[in-house]
Design brief:
The protein is α/β, with parallel strands linked by helices. It contains 16 helices and 23 strands. Helix 9 runs antiparallel to helix 10 and helix 13 packs parallel to helix 15. The structure holds 1-deoxynojirimycin.
Length: about 550
């Protein structure tokens, strides 16, 4: 039932993954044909970005019809086949659920705008002025100045947290609350394993508040969970709540709200720790993270389909991260950085591996963004977040093996820059090369899956004086794992307080190498630049009596 605690997730932008019918857009047939690749990588659960009918102002997060598959992605039969095939291979699949808003082309919105007396008027938030709810912050700061948009048809303003083409739903309306449950039912009945719920902090709005994390929002989300529990077993709800740890904690409730929440504050601190060569940003934020109920789990990530958001850091750290990772202003977007993992880390294999090692060993279930397992690049000349969503690089053939369409029909150009062109970086060549990033990540996932301590165990940070070293113990039942990272570009010596762990023989589960036994007293290690060790601590055999 709590499978998600041991799972490795993989985020798929369907349009970008594989084009099955040769029209230049990825689709379900294409995705189904690549499930073997994902199985080989070793991930357990796919998270699909919105697959619904949409005019694509926000790449599908503007839903025109919640019950229809986007025509570019194929038919509902293609979708069902993908779900079945995913399950046949022992994988799971969750879908994005866009709860907070619809497209302005959704039938509800069209009806609501047709007249002030429309029965659907109250599905959205209307006002004669644009001065209400003024404490609600603007999220797409590069694109808009207000959360209100004037509707000339009826002469009133409507509220939108994101683009003006994404009017917010009015959750005070019981019909809206009910409608979203019907949407969930529709897809759960087709066998999916749960949802990643989009933008959940913003559902309810109240004058005089910042309209985030309101008690009414939590009450409704608990109702969503009850609906799931009463009707579907073994499914998961993952929250997108870009908030501080104490606030996100509330989305787990007493184990009766979300099963999982994305850990937004941890993510930028991994990049901070790597750049500063100092463990403290990671340790401090995890120490500040409140405990969560037994059945719950954090979802951790390095990159995703959005800009690397810097909302959950101080202004000073934000400036540092911008200067360090986005020196060219074109790399910045809203309060974040629109780059992929590999270019962020200067395409330096050692640092990329180190980042993966952190992702796969810190508490939580990791999510890998498509293409990052082969170190794909980005394209900052494309607008908004398009540069992070270029076609998956399958081979060095035309269109990176993603599609047989004429290049002019492609939804996006393939990445063909000097360093990270598909001609150099592609899945086929990495599958053939046992020393590739793909195979390193695959081996890490495999090792992780053989130890439940990673998904379920406690995490105790050691406190060696050398702050360039991050070391922690992951423990679950009789399993003891010591994870050690050298965050710096130079060799480091470290002395670990071994009273924290028993006399044992550390064996690196990634290389199989045995280390000097631990006995009493500090345990000394010399670490290469960016070295990481996943040491299983095998008890030393007791002397026979
Ligand atoms: C969060 C999604 O991740 C992002 O891509 C989208 O633009 C907004 N929510 C609005 O739905």
């Amino acid at each position: 039932m709590t499978w998600y605690k041991d799972a490795v997730f993989y985020e798929v932008y369907i349009r970008a993954f594989c084009d099955g019918n040769g029209d230049g857009h990825g689709d379900f047939q294409g995705l189904t044909s690549k499930l073997g690749y994902l199985q080989e990588l070793g991930v357990n659960c796919l998270w699909l970005l919105p697959m619904y009918d949409s005019p694509l102002v926000d790449d599908g997060y503007d839903v025109r019809d919640f019950l229809k598959i986007h025509q570019d992605y194929g038919t509902v039969e293609d979708f069902k086949e993908m779900v079945q095939e995913t399950h046949r291979r022992g994988l799971r699949v969750i879908a994005d659920l866009v709860m907070n808003h619809t497209s302005d082309q959704h039938a509800w919105s069209q009806e609501a705008r047709s007249s002030k007396n429309s029965p659907k008027r109250d599905y959205y938030l209307w006002s004669r002025t644009n001065r209400k709810l003024k404490d609600a912050r603007i999220i797409f700061v590069d694109f808009q100045e207000s959360n209100w948009e004037f509707d000339p048809l009826t002469g009133e303003y409507y509220f939108h947290r994101f683009y003006p083409q994404q009017p917010d739903l009015n959750y005070d309306n019981p019909a809206v609350q009910q409608a979203m449950l019907r949407v969930m039912k529709h897809w759960l009945d087709m066998g999916i394993d749960g949802f990643r719920a989009d933008a959940v902090p913003y559902l309810f709005k109240r004058e005089g508040t910042n309209c985030e994390n309101l008690p009414e929002t939590h009450a409704y989300l608990k109702r969503v969970r009850r609906f799931l529990d009463e009707n579907y077993r073994g499914k998961v709800l993952l929250a997108e709540a870009n908030q501080w740890p104490e606030e996100v904690r509330e989305y787990f409730g007493a184990g009766d709200e979300f099963h999982m929440c994305l850990h937004f504050p941890l993510m930028p601190r991994i990049f901070l720790a790597l750049k500063r060569e100092d463990r403290r940003p990671i340790v401090d934020i995890l120490n500040r993270t409140p405990p969560i109920p037994e059945s719950c789990q954090w979802a951790t990530f390095l990159r995703c389909h959005d800009e690397l958001t810097l909302e959950m850091v101080t202004e000073e750290d934000r400036q540092f991260l911008w200067d360090a990772y986005a020196p060219d202003h074109q790399m910045r977007l809203n309060l974040g950085i629109r780059r992929r993992l590999s270019p962020l880390l200067n395409n330096d294999r050692r640092r990329i591996e180190l980042a993966y090692s952190l992702l796969l060993t810190l508490p939580g279930s990791p999510i890998i963004y498509y293409g990052d397992e082969i170190g794909m690049g980005d394209n900052i000349t494309l607008k908004d977040r398009g540069g992070l969503r270029t076609p998956m690089q399958w081979s060095n053939e035309e269109n990176a093996g993603f599609s047989v369409a004429h290049p002019s029909a492609m939804y996006s150009p393939v990445n063909d820059d000097e360093v990270l062109s598909y001609k150099r970086i592609n899945a086929r060549s990495q599958l053939e090369d046992p020393s590739s990033l793909f195979h390193t990540v695959r081996k890490m996932i495999l090792a992780r899956k053989t130890h439940r301590a990673f998904g379920r165990g406690s995490c105790q940070f050691l406190e060696p004086q050398n702050t360039a070293v991050l070391a922690y113990l992951r423990r679950y039942e009789s399993d003891n794992i010591l994870v050690v990272h050298n965050l710096s570009s130079s060799r480091q010596s470290v002395s670990l307080e071994s009273t924290e762990f028993p006399a044992c023989l550390p064996v690196d589960m990634l290389s199989g190498d045995a280390f000097a036994p631990v006995s009493r007293g500090p345990y000394a290690l010399d670490l290469d630049p960016y070295q990481y060790l996943w040491l299983t601590l095998k008890p030393l055999s007791q002397p026979s009596p």
